[in-house]
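Example S7 (structure tokens).
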């Protein structure tokens, strides 16, 4: 703790930098048009420093072509607008002084590139990382090594994000991240989500929005924050698109392909994204367990296991949609999306059961096969109406989503004596179908008043229905006999209703936003069991509760180079339906997964203080307090271990982070992210008190190189030191990536070797 206090005190000294130049927070507004002088939607607009052309901020134009930048300090600026298939256009020199009230830029026209255009030089490009008051934005296309990568690869090297060996995603050292795609929850289990993100090509997405303390507009779920994945949807006139072919070779191959197409004509805009990946891989798993006497704590027996796993996972995903521009201010849209995945796992385990002196008592050899297929289909209907050009709009979304999966398992358990003489053999098979239906309605309204007061409000209701069955059979003389100790069926229904209101007011140098979200949660679980055993008879549970989630953001522009902000928010993590499912999921004879119907939601109070210097250096300090903290736990029953989520108690997390984008040379940009966290867990679990604490250091470095004649390169990597997550001690791990790229086909294509 003393070390942490020293580090936090040292970081506070950064806030004394340059507090002399006072500005009035000038607003700059303008508009982008096409050749017919109609508003150009979704043009990329960047604010540049006139001295070195460095990108200070970026935004996109509205459906009517308008854009704005707030809180400009004294200085000289340029604005550049660009879009695919169009020549970039620059504003004139903009000079902000103490006497400037506001700046209105004349309309900037984007002209289409002509065939005889020999060369176009774009001075400005999007930065890889953008730090905004309430989020950190990763511009995916700005990194060379993202070419041919998956979305999971991009997440893995994003600042503050770590992915462990089981594909659990953490943010600033805390699990419980909510992953959204185009501002919509994914409603997948962690394993399903990981498989989907591995198959989704990075070329299909535009940005990652990392929000450690989201506003009240977003669902309150996710105690460590939200990562919103924004997919590409180009709206330039005519037909345009891109395609990617990749091949990654390790021990096994990983080929992939993706295509992004867009066609806009008249009042219609059609778009399509599709991708295919084929994963092959392996994992070696070693387990060592020492069993202790509950009184003397002496070792009574020893368990060792070595498992080799080989898996293949081909997946196909697609999204197709249309936007219809009813008027210049009203848009109707529909999006259809889905994916199909088939995973085949083959494993073999050798287990040794030993006495306290390490002498072998018996040996178990267990080969197994697990074939799982799952499908997803969804439809989205959306509506958007803009009442004016300053931000008054009404939006609505309706979503229907359906998931189905089927897992077929085969386990062969052969027991030997110490001399490898067979004693007995059993065969267990499993058939596990599952279905999930999701229905969601939401509407949002925003309005900006003349005094720069902005109000946002919205309603949302969602309903989830799941049906999970576990059918297990003992194969005796090739005849399947139901295993009544494992066979079960579980139904789960969840309804969440929410309303929110946020107010945002600008007072020259000071910006204040306050919001409140209220959510009503209702769920019902029904374990149907089976007719053979008393333990698995019919049982059910239900719960209903209402919670309020306030958020506050305060930002102060000290001068042209220094901005200070503080924010507070309350979050919730509800147990996933599979975490409440009480029946056992068989992994092998000595390891099971199980749900916990008594699992309670956890609540977190988060506060952050951050300082940004000159747009390239951001320092953040944070503290979070989590009640009813739940995590993966391990319970012993004989020689078997049951893995389930359980409420441990209280978690306190505090830390400090530094993020910097350093323009070393014109051709070299170095991006650094350092995060120090201190976790402390206190509580009670399985008859024992828990009092564990541990610091963790995370380092993320990304070096980008842009050479002449279309050559580029990247050298990046991350490292995470040893840390604790509940009952789990995580050893240090890290990764390094390198790539070299070359623009071809008149800069319309890219070849990458990584």
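Recovered sequence:
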């Amino acid at each position: 703790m003393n070390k942490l206090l020293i580090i936090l005190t040292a970081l506070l000294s950064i806030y004394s930098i340059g507090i002399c130049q006072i500005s009035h927070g000038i607003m700059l507004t303008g508009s982008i048009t096409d050749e017919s002088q109609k508003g150009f939607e979704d043009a990329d607009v960047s604010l540049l420093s006139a001295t070195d052309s460095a990108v200070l901020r970026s935004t996109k134009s509205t459906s009517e072509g308008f854009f704005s930048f707030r809180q400009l300090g004294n200085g000289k600026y340029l604005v550049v607008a660009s879009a695919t298939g169009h020549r970039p256009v620059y504003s004139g020199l903009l000079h902000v002084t103490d006497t400037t009230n506001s700046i209105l830029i004349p309309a900037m026209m984007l002209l289409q590139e002509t065939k005889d255009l020999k060369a176009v030089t774009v001075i400005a490009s999007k930065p890889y990382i953008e730090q905004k008051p309430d989020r950190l934005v990763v511009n995916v296309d700005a990194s060379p090594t993202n070419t041919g990568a998956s979305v999971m690869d991009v997440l893995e090297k994003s600042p503050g994000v770590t992915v462990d060996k089981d594909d659990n995603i953490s943010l600033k050292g805390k699990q419980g991240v909510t992953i959204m795609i185009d501002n919509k929850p994914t409603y997948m289990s962690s394993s399903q989500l990981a498989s989907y993100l591995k198959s989704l090509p990075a070329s299909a997405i535009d940005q990652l929005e990392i929000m450690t303390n989201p506003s009240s507009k977003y669902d309150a779920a996710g105690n460590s924050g939200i990562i919103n994945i924004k997919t590409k949807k180009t709206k330039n006139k005519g037909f345009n698109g891109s395609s990617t072919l990749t091949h990654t070779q390790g021990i096994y191959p990983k080929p992939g392909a993706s295509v992004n197409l867009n066609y806009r004509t008249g009042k219609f805009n059609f778009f399509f994204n599709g991708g295919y990946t084929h994963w092959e891989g392996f994992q070696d798993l070693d387990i060592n367990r020492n069993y202790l006497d509950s009184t003397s704590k002496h070792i009574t027996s020893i368990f060792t296991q070595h498992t080799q796993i080989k898996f293949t996972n081909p997946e196909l995903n697609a999204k197709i949609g249309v936007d219809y521009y009813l008027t210049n201010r009203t848009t109707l849209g529909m999006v259809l999306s889905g994916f199909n995945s088939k995973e085949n796992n083959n494993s073999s385990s050798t287990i040794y059961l030993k006495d306290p002196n390490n002498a072998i008592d018996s040996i178990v050899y267990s080969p197994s096969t697990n074939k799982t297929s799952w499908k997803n289909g969804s439809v989205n209907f959306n509506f958007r109406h803009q009442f004016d050009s300053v931000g008054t709009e009404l939006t609505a979304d309706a979503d229907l989503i359906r998931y189905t999966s089927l897992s077929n398992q085969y386990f062969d358990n052969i027991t030997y004596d110490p001399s490898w003489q067979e004693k007995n053999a059993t065969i267990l098979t499993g058939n596990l179908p599952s279905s999930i239906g999701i229905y969601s309605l939401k509407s949002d309204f925003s309005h900006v008043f003349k005094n720069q007061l902005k109000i946002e409000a919205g309603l949302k209701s969602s309903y989830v229905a799941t049906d999970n069955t576990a059918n297990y059979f003992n194969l005796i003389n090739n005849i399947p006999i139901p295993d009544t100790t494992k066979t079960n069926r579980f139904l789960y229904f969840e309804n969440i209703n929410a309303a929110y209101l946020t107010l945002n007011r600008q007072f020259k140098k000071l910006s204040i936003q306050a919001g409140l979200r209220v959510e009503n949660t209702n769920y019902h679980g029904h374990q149907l069991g089976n007719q053979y055993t008393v333990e698995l008879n019919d049982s059910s549970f239900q719960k209903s509760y209402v919670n309020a989630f306030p958020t506050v953001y305060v930002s102060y522009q000290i001068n042209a180079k220094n901005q200070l902000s503080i924010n507070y928010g309350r979050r919730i993590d509800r147990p996933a339906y599979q975490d409440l499912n009480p029946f056992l999921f068989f992994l092998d004879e000595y390891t099971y997964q199980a749900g916990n119907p008594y699992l309670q939601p956890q609540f977190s109070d988060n506060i952050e203080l951050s300082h940004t210097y000159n747009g390239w250096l951001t320092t953040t300090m944070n503290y979070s307090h989590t009640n009813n903290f739940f995590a993966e736990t391990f319970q012993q029953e004989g020689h078997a271990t049951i893995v389930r989520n359980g409420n441990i108690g209280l978690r306190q997390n505090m830390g400090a982070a530094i993020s910097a984008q350093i323009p070393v040379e014109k051709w070299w940009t170095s991006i650094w992210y350092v995060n120090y966290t201190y976790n402390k867990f206190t509580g009670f679990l399985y008859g024992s008190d828990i009092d564990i604490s541990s610091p963790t250091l995370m380092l993320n470095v990304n070096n980008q190189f842009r050479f002449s004649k279309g050559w580029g390169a990247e050298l990046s990597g991350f490292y995470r030191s040893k840390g604790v997550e509940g009952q789990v001690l995580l050893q240090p791990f890290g990764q390094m990536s390198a790539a070299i790229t070359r623009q071809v086909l008149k800069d319309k294509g890219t070849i990458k070797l990584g």
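Notes on this example. The domain at 257-753 is CATH 2.40.170.20 (Maltoporin; Chain A).
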